Amino acid sequence: MGEFELIERLFKAPAAGLAARRPGVLLGIGDDCALLDAGPLAISTDMLVEGRHFFRDADPAALGHKALAVNLSDLAAMGAEPLGFTLALALPAERARDLPWCEALAAGMLALAAEHDCALIGGDTTAGPLTLSITVFGRVDPARALRRDGARDGDDIWISGVLGDAAFALERRYAGRPASAAADLRLDRPTPRVALGRALAGVASAAIDLSDGLAGDLAHVLAASRLGARVDLDRLPLSAELLALSPGQRHRLALAGGDDYELCFTAAPAQREAVLAASRASATPVARIGAVSATPGLVWLDAGQPVELALRGFDHFAPAL
Ligand code: ADP
Ligand code: MG
Description:
This protein is α+β, with helices and mostly antiparallel strands. 37% of the residues lie in helices and 25% in strands. A hairpin with a 2-residue loop joins strand 12 and strand 13 (305-307). The mean pLDDT is 95.
């Protein structure tokens, strides 16, 4: 099957319906460009590379899901409504010949796209080491967008879902030991918190999605807002599997593990009821874990007492320890 047949079969035909009925999309796959009529847009790109972000034997449907999920997570963290996305795909020749594999990849991606009314509107396909690069487009009122630089002294710090399960599953997989099915799902098929993010637009003061661990990602918000924070370790939402580990392991996975794709956001204490209403409306659990302070730096509290944790978020180009 040639390049154009592959694009037609995997992407153009299956994506045509959603693109045709999605308001704001004037023209989808098939021309030199897609055409949108959409007002202010939030735009983000995230790339998954074989051997770096996923294993060679990864399930193709889960891979398709995750490639789009991590991008939708960025829209969620901005409070934006998904509109559409483009896919740049590099595919080794032997994978391109494996039609069931390719169809599962596309199906996993397009199922999540349909769930979020996010139309595949274009892309590029080339031979090369397996790489999926997606750019998402979302609608958001710029005045209500959840930027990283909006936190204020005294704001509450909140987290959606639970932390550390994906990192736990990854560590187990490297060690050749099984994790729970629930933890595996968190790693392989993360849930982008789109409905929560949208409900928080205009309520939260700042937000980020957790891709590299709370310690590093919250530090990005604090740096952008030029503030510090304290976080209560005993308020962190953790699964039973993490709670069964030693405090050191638990904290490392929950705070410096990656791939959670939960939202970390700040909001004024006066917004607590509004935050809980957003949580209920989006059926997404949230937990209040700390507070922003004027003093720079991140202070971890255990039973109210400051503790030292040697942690940092993931950095692809960090020098080896
Ligand atoms: P061009 O050469 O003009 O850039 P291509 O031949 O690369 O166009 O692509 C043909 C059409 O198929 C374009 O509309 C492009 O957006 C779309 N397309 C190519 N690859 C993908 C892909 N992986 N996913 C979605 N659409 C794609
Ligand atoms: Mg062209």
